[in-house]
Amino acid sequence: MALILASMFSSVSNYDILDFTCEDGTLHATLRSRTEFGVCPHCGMPSSVHYGFTKKEVRCLPSGTGSVSLTILQHRYLCANEDCRHTTFTETCEASRRYGRRTDACD
User: Fold this and answer.
1) For 4, 7, 53, 75, which has the most beta carbons within 10 A of its beta carbon?
2) What CA–CA distance (Å, rounded) separates 27 from 36?
3) Would you state the pLDDT for residue 84?
4) Can you give the pTM of this predicted structure?
5) d(Cα 64, Cα 75) in Å, to the nearest integer?
6) Gap between the Cα atoms of 89 and 100, Å rounded
């Protein structure tokens, strides 16, 4: 099953598949980011200091059997710039836009 999911989301290469289930015609996968650093979107400073994860729930294009949903665990980072007004930030997601609830393929 993980191989099927990996082929469906081959463009999302920086993620590990943690869980994959199929219930009532809905495929659901939980993915976790593998990134080692992020860039603060507010000041541009790179950071490698992890500050936990944020869950992002997104819907995908339906597969042949039904709907597909993802739970993406994105890293949160501490901003290394003392002058930045944001102390933490969440990494960007390859699969969807910021605050998006659907993959880019759905839009």
Assistant:
1) 75
2) 28
3) 94
4) 0.69
5) 31
6) 16
